[in-house]
Hints:
Elements lengths: L6 E4 L3 E6 L11 E6 L1 H8 L7 E4 L1 E3 L2 H12 L8 E3 L6 E4 L8 E4 L23 E5 L7 H12 L6 E5 L10 H9 L3 E5 H8 L4 H7 L5 E5 L4 E6 L5 E4 L2 E2 L7 H14 L4 H16 L11 H9 L2 H6 E4 L2 E4 L1
Parallel strand pairs: 1-4, 1-9, 2-7, 5-6, 9-10, 10-11, 11-12, 15-16
Antiparallel strand pairs: 2-3, 7-8, 12-13, 13-14, 16-17
Helix pairs in contact: 1-7, 7-8
Amino acid sequence: MTSPPEVLCIGESMALFVPAEPGPPERVRSWLRTIGGAESNVACHLPALGVPSAWVSAVGDDPFGRALVHEIGAAGVDVSGVEVDRTRPTGLYVKESGAQGSPVRYYRAGSAASALGPDLVDRLRLDGVRVLHLSGITPALSDSCLALVRALLTAPRGDRLVSFDVNHRPVLGQDLAVLAELAGLADLVLTGDDEAERVWGTGDPARLRELLPGPRVLVVKHGERGATLVERDAPPLFEPALRVDVVEPVGAGDAFAAGFLAATLRGADPVTRLRRGHLQAAATLLTHDDVGAPLPEPVVTTLLRADAETWRAAHLTGEGVVVT
């Protein structure tokens, strides 16, 4: 890192295993080990977008923990605040890969990150941090993790923004009332319309804004249709997503968050902020990785400047951009 981080992401990352050969998982004998975690995914996208980032968590004193720190650091993320727990392991999860979805099995109970608590707040280095990024996954890991997220959302923050990605995962058994409470304490909230329907009973952006008046910024993602931005004293703004030949969908939401946050920090207009999110999500949708390489800069520049008709006609494939 050559510059102090502007965005600090806090949350668990785990060793991730995906099949390295075709077939049902019970028949697969070769697995590829990579890494995954919502908050670290966001952190890993940001340096490539020109935004210095840091990731803080806890890992076990084991090979998986060392791999996490090394690989996230290799993406240009400041990992100096990651703590090593000598008694608890690094969590892991297993998933299948496919364009229609990826069933996931978690092995994270009792992990190092699940033992994080509100005492972490006093150890954070926040000089220069403009955005603190959290998600609804962390408070579901343990009571102490819930206390940590509450402490971060209620601590004095001055001009610093707190971003909260709802990230409702039914398999985690998250408390919906708690998710709604925490989102209401943030400055910037990102949610899918499907998870908003589960948490607040509606995925409609205007109605959701009425139920969630506290945050300055609300982004409602509508899957492959696009996303809606609702800011205070401004009507909802919808921007369609790019058409993409999807390789695998996991990680696209984190990529969108990173693109949107990067554009927000650079003072971009609302349409550009949404388009930056869509472009970063598209790059991840074109790969099997949770963090895909950014699209070529000429492609990004052209599409950011495109009129509405050209944007809607763009189709991203593994070979490049096709305009139909």
